[in-house]
Amino acid sequence: MEKTLLSFGHGFSARALSRLLLPQDWRIIGTTRSEDKASALMAEGIEPRIWPGADMVPALDAATHLLISAAPGAEADPVLAELRDEIATRASQFEWVGYLSTTGVYGDHQGNWVDETTPLTPATKRGIARVAAEAAWADIPGLPLHIFRLAGIYGPGRGPFSKVRNGTARRIIKPGQIFSRTHVADIARVLAASIARPNPGAAYNVCDDDPAPPEDVIGYAAELLGLPIPAAEDFETAEMTPMARSFYAESKKVRNDRIKDELGVELLYPDYKTGLKALLAQEIGGA
């Protein structure tokens, strides 16, 4: 049977995975909500489906692998809300199912380390919704589910450089605040490694080796660009949207030993300095 990946919510991370799989003669069907994005996916060799809307049963019938990137809503996971029965009846057909979650499921650990065995105690509505979605997917009998808990994602077109250049980057200082992050190319490598070495029921943290305060990342981006480092702003008095402020509700360092020990992944970008240098080189080179 032809290797066929059906990707729900075929966005930034899923497109990076596609760039690894397409040269290996995979068929990839990806959902998107807009015609414009569908055209962009088609140009990359993806078979787009406008969903919600399209009949997904033929794509499910063809799929050997599923990837779910679509974020859960306030009420439920959107894929399961519409297609749970169709997926459940085909559970034995799939060789691998990947669900992209977030390290937000661990909640706040006041800057201490977490790993995949840490209890899930989310502190935000987004984290609570992710825990519920993980459980709902795991509840489907016989589904070869793999959960990937992603740290803050950056990569081409999604980094701090544009904000530093246009003067909108902010160095919000909250003492003790620390985040983990991951380059999108390393997400793709982890997913590809898991597809090659399935272990149904496994959960993996996907992040680099260097958790760091967010203000350090902005400062280093400014240094690379040769621009002034943005002034420090105190978290308690800084004007921020509720959404922006919510990102500071959690502080933790995330361990990534399992992706190395079980999947044999060697990170391309083991720390934010390596990743940002590479991003800037790509921008300058027009890559």
Please explain how this structure is put together.
- It is a single chain.
- The chain has 287 residues and is α/β, with parallel strands linked by helices.
- The protein has a domain at 4-155 and 181-208 and 254-269: NAD(P)-binding Rossmann-like Domain (Rossmann fold, 3-Layer(aba) Sandwich).
- Helix content is 37%, strand content 18%.
- It contains eleven helices and 13 strands.
- The protein has helices at 12-21, 35-43, 57-62, 78-89, 125-138, 161-166, 184-196, 214-225, 242-246, 257-261, 272-285; strands spanning 4-8, 27-32, 47-50, 65-68, 96-102, 113-114, 145-150, 152-154, 171-173, 181-183, 203-206, 232-234, 253-254.
- The strands form four sheets. A seven-stranded parallel β-sheet has the order 3-2-1-4-5-7-11, with helices on both faces. A two-stranded parallel ribbon has the order 6-13.
- The radius of gyration is 19 Å and the shape is globular.
- The two termini are 35 Å apart.
- The mean pLDDT is 96.
- Keywords: NAD, Oxidoreductase.
- InterPro entries: NAD(P)-bd_dom_sf.
Q: Assign the CATH topology of the domain at 4-155 and 181-208 and 254-269.
A: Rossmann fold
Strand content: 15-25%
- The coarse silhouette is globular
Question: In the CATH classification, which architecture of the domain at 4-155 and 181-208 and 254-269 applies?
Answer: 3-Layer(aba) Sandwich
Strand order of the largest sheet: 3-2-1-4-5-7-11
- Estimate the helix proportion, in percent: 25-40%
Overall structural class, as computed from helix and strand content, comes to alpha/beta
Organism: Yoonia phaeophyticola
EC number: 1.1.1.290
Enzyme class: oxidoreductase
GO molecular function, one term: 4-phosphoerythronate dehydrogenase activity
